[in-house]
Amino acid sequence: MTLWDRLKESARTMQTELEARREELRGGAFRDASMAMCALVAAADGAIDPAERRRVSYLIEQNEVLKNFPADELSRRFEEWLDRLAADVEAGRESALAEIAKARRKPVEARAVVQIGIVIGGSDGHFDLTERSVVAEACHALGLPPHEFDL
Predict the structure, then answer these.
(1) How far apart are the C-alpha atoms of 12 and 134, rounded to whole Å?
(2) Are 114 and 149 a contacting pair, CB within 8 Å?
(3) What mean pLDDT, rounded, does the chain reach?
(4) What's the confidence (pLDDT) of residue 12?
(5) What is the pTM of this model?
(6) N or C: which end of the chain has fewer CB within 10 A?
(7) What does the pLDDT read at residue 8?
(8) Dmax of the chain from CA atoms?
(9) Distance CA 123, CA 118 (A)
(10) What is the structure's pLDDT at 80?
């Protein structure tokens, strides 16, 4: 199995796991941490490309688990995180990781935030090293071992 095939299969598996726990993922901490994670992944390479912004926004709108929340609210929160990251990468990154860490109190939500990051990162077929690194940092903020997610 090629790396691309493994990546697609892993993203599908994680999305299935997320959908199975959809009813448990309705909290504000999960919502906010997920949008911070999406923004970190979108900006992982240091640039916020308009095409990637649109692609991630579309993925957020289409994700079955994130449909627990109003799409316009998610979009607003995602855009706010991107704006913070664009204004000051380091401060925005620290703030986003602090927001992600708030999901630590609920293990199901914490794992789901990581899975959202992996699904978003792998959605274009290239879960590159910078995206993996951002998701691994989030794992540390959440108190989860990155190797549990093959990071």
Answers:
(1) 20
(2) yes
(3) 85
(4) 61
(5) 0.85
(6) N
(7) 54
(8) 41
(9) 8
(10) 96
CA-based Rg of the chain, rounded to a whole angstrom? 14
Tokens representing 143? Answer: 């108190």
Token duo for residue 70: 């109003």
Name residue, tokens 């009813």: 23
28-42 and 107-122 helices cross at what angle (nearest 10)? 30
Per the listing, tokens 């703030």 go with: 95
Condensed to tens digits (0 to 9), the pLDDT of residues 21-32 reads 656 677 889 999
**pLDDT tens readout for residues 101-133:** 999 999 999 999 999 999 888 777 778 888 899
Place of tokens 């299969």: 9
Angle at 110 between CA 105 and CA 111, to 5 degrees: 145
* Placement of tokens 């095939």 in the chain: 5
Residue 75 neighbours by CB under 8 Å, 6+ apart: 57, 60, 61
Place of tokens 């990637």: 52
